[in-house]
Automatic annotation (TrEMBL):
Protein name per UniProt: O-acyltransferase WSD1-like isoform X1
Catalysed transformations (reactions): a long chain fatty alcohol + a fatty acyl-CoA = a long-chain alcohol wax ester + CoA; an acyl-CoA + a 1,2-diacyl-sn-glycerol = a triacyl-sn-glycerol + CoA
Residues in O-acyltransferase WSD1-like N-terminal domain copies: 33-223
Signal peptide: 1-19
Organism per entry: Iris pallida (Sweet iris)
Family annotation (PANTHER family): O-ACYLTRANSFERASE (WSD1-LIKE) FAMILY PROTEIN, O-ACYLTRANSFERASE WSD1-LIKE ISOFORM X1
Entry GO CC: endoplasmic reticulum membrane; plasma membrane
Taxonomic lineage of the native organism: Eukaryota, Viridiplantae, Streptophyta, Embryophyta, Tracheophyta
GO biological process: one example: triglyceride biosynthetic process
Stretches assigned to the O-acyltransferase WSD1 C-terminal domain: 280-425
Protein family (similarity comment): In the N-terminal section; belongs to the long-chain O-acyltransferase family.
The entry's keywords: Acyltransferase, Endoplasmic reticulum, Signal, Transferase
Length: 434
């Protein structure tokens, strides 16, 4: 590699949902599917694109290349992953490394664990990577025993009601109820096969933490609030029709169902143990979150909007719907196989407007093969939606990657609306303009 390639690189991680992998799975005597061990030819998996020489930056070439491979189906003739080594500078980095992995190999937690086990800290490779905490501030319990008992009974009843409502609504949304068509949802059949445009934006993680403390919520509450307000601002700016502005918009928030306590990644040796709490594979569920409506998002109180979104999310969390959804998906897998689960999740995505997936990245700068990693992005691609959102934290920043249906959603306008959303919420919550 040349000297300039030894400078800062960026990593893009795509979790692909297109296609199915039947040729690489076999069934045992009990009918359970397992991966078939095969010989890997690295030349088929490590791809190095070439562009015209002599340019100072290759932003457009790299952007077009990444957008193209994001929607390409993987060949069924080989294992379902590839690595794209783009040795051309952009305005953001000296080179770009793109990991493209099929979702059937594992969920975001599994694949991030594998990736982070291959990377090292730039400041001291002998030390492990560390990750931020996203826990909610603890509240002091009341000293009155009677009040505490009444509170527990009330909470239990509320959980039962929320569980029935949320799980029932989730099943209906997955099978019968579709979101309205809107500026962020075209509703085009086969939208997952259409070209997409990828863009990204970053926020200060320190400001996110301050906002989280202000509303006594979680990092996820703040992320969803920013994204939801950004979508409402985009709907307002992109359409003059009142119906489109007030469209029913539902976000599918994907959640890790492993019992891991504080968010940390485990060594691969630990994840493959039979009794581990953080097993390898696909162990996720989802919650449907209706994006709050407001008459005019341009003048609405952003803090009140954030608190409204937080309240909706807390109601979803204060139920066993997520657990039941995870058990339901596992039951489908055992009875009908992983293809049936994939079809169910596909239908769930198709009936909603956007998916929001969030993974935690390291606090310290990473290096890969001695090359510092300047930027790191993670997102889901290949889903039947016009808009997908992937969030990852890295080096004190929160990276939001957006995949949008090309020619339908204006990526520059959407980015501007997300920036405006973060700016307005920051000013309202902590009095600081980013």
């Amino acid at each position: 590699m040349t000297h300039r390639l030894c400078r800062l690189w960026r990593i893009c991680f795509f979790l692909l949902t297109l296609g199915s992998p039947p040729s690489w799975q076999v069934r045992d005597a009990q009918g359970v599917q397992h991966w078939r061990r095969v010989k890997v030819n690295l030349e088929e998996h490590v791809l190095v694109p070439t562009f015209p020489s002599g340019l100072d930056t290759y932003d457009e070439y790299v952007q077009d290349y990444i957008s193209k491979i994001a929607t390409n189906q993987m060949p069924q003739s080989r294992p379902l992953w590839d690595l794209h080594l783009i040795k051309f500078p952009t305005s953001k980095a000296e080179g770009t490394l793109v990991f493209r992995i099929h979702h059937s190999l594992g969920d975001g937690y599994s694949l991030m664990s594998a990736l982070f086990n291959c990377l090292q800290r730039a400041d001291d490779p002998s030390l492990p990577l560390t990750f931020p905490s996203g826990s909610k501030p603890k509240t002091k319990p009341t000293k009155n025993g009677m009040v505490r008992m009444i509170s527990k009974v009330s909470s239990s009843l509320s959980m039962c009601v929320n569980t029935v409502r949320d799980f029932g609504w989730s099943v209906l949304k997955s099978n019968l109820l579709e979101d309205d068509k809107s500026p962020v949802r075209s509703g085009t059949p086969g939208v997952e096969f259409l070209p997409i445009t990828l863009s990204s934006i970053e926020f200060s993680l320190d400001d996110i933490h301050k906002i989280k403390t202000k509303i006594r919520g979680t990092i996820n509450d703040v992320i969803c609030g920013i994204v939801f307000l950004g979508i409402r601002l985009y709907n307002e700016a992109a359409s003059e029709e009142a119906r489109a502005k007030a469209a029913n918009v539902t976000a599918l928030v994907l959640l890790n169902t492993r019992d891991i306590g504080s968010y940390s990644y485990q060594p691969l040796s630990e994840m493959t143990k039979p009794d581990t709490k953080s097993p390898w594979g696909n162990h996720f569920a989802f919650i449907h979150v209706g994006i709050p409506s407001c008459k005019d998002p341009m003048i609405a109180d952003p803090l009140q909007f954030l608190l409204k979104a937080k309240k909706i999310i807390e109601k979803r969390k204060n139920s066993l719907a997520v657990v039941l959804t995870g058990k339901f998906l596992e039951m489908i897998r055992r009875l009908k196989g992983p293809e049936a689960v994939a079809k169910y999740v596909h239908a769930t995505l198709r009936n909603t407007s956007t998916a929001v997936t969030n993974v935690v990245g390291p606090i310290e700068q990473m290096i890969i093969a001695g090359h510092p990693v300047r930027s790191f992005h993670f997102t889901l691609v290949g889903g039947p939606q016009s808009l997908t959102l992937g969030v990852v934290s890295y080096m004190g920043k929160l990276k939001l990657a957006m995949g949008v249906e090309k020619g339908f959603i204006d990526p520059k306008l959407l980015t501007s609306c997300m920036e405006k959303s973060f700016e307005r919420i920051s000013q309202a919550a902590i009095g600081v303009k980013p």
